[in-house]
Please model this.
Amino acid sequence: MSTEEHPDDSLLRRYLLGDRMAEAEQDRLEKSYFESDACFDRLLEVEDDLIDAYIRGGLSPRECAQFERHFLAARRRRDRYEAMRAIAASFFRDGPRLHHSLLKGFREFFVMQSPVARTAMAVLASAAILAVGFLGAGYARLWRENVNAHALLASSRQAPTPAFLTFNLRPGLLRSGAGTGNQIRVEPGVEWLVLRLETPASEEYSWFAAALSTAPGEELLRQNRLLAAGSALDFRIPSGVLTAGQDYAVSLAGIKPDGRRTSLQSYAFHVAK
Amino acid sequence: MHEPPADPRPGVLVDDGEYSQLRRRLIMYFERRGCQAPDILADECFSRLAHSMKSGWQPSGLRTYMFGIAGNVYLEYMRSAGRLLEELPESLTGDCDTPAAQDFRLVARDVVGRLSPEERDLMEAHYFDKVSWKDLAGEAGQTAGGLRLRVMRLRKRLMKDFGNQLISIGLKQKARVQSGKSGGK
Model:
């Protein structure tokens, strides 16, 4: 097996998405995965990561297009994608799991024990409470010092800009200019926006498709196979596609299990300056 | 091009593991190039290897040699015009559910149902960002990075269970779904 350094993940990703590459570079990469088991295993992992990112809406619009046009053209990958999509969808379809109460579980466990064991547990619990009391006093002092230190640090540096910003959009055609509609503000340095769209009766639909357009109707980007979580779904867009002071609209379509597509609502919004 | 024989394994590849490893690589190679039937082209490579070895000749580095054969097979394939997939057919890009996709859903539900509550929480956090990684990590006494690694392992396990379940109900996609294996055989 080759002991050469393996290609990095971004190169493997580009390879799988069908990106144009220099012939020598592609040749090197292919030779590398032919000869090295570790490199080929990594390539398969990156393949799964890509499918996963597509399902979760984590690919850029360009990558999405490459994924749909090139990656899914191979039947083997399409089957793998369908399998991973089915797994992801079943987490949503089963609904949120009911969490067991920790306290209830502990009470049941306690009741199941013999009287001797219960007494021993009670003594141990009392000792633990005392110990926690002592430790708590020390912790409180440390905590106060920590808060003071943080306040000092905070005053000497600016808050970091988050990479993502989430906005809740309500359906409708009113923009903020009209008084009550949706308005978003893109802070400098924010790379991605998550438009959280309120969705209607999502159980009817297997998937959703969302398209972002300018007010005159020019489509900027589109994402298919979006999953709703409860009564909302997240439509991730790169902040660079929006211009301050302009109006935009997101149109939403629902896809039923038999493949039929139904146009749902639109969400107009204004990007504040 | 030669007709692929029923069993394209040349005598040199007595080791099934190595045969399968090479076949998966060849399929990956042809997939990248947009070939319509990567599994048939992979078989063609093995046919050629068998043909070269009839006289008793042995390649020194089998994998490198196969890489060379793959290049030749691809060039010949390219000469046959119109075989590249320029665009995905509409039926594939659409969102319509095939009967197989419905089977997939049932199998997926069964496989996901076998997860422990804690594993399920992790995967829900992964897919839907409902729970913060930091909170989950705090509860589990792990780092967020450690949890993400667990998610990757769980995903792998789910896919393996999914493939095994398909085998048990005899779906033909099983071979392709299972750990990225190629189809056709």
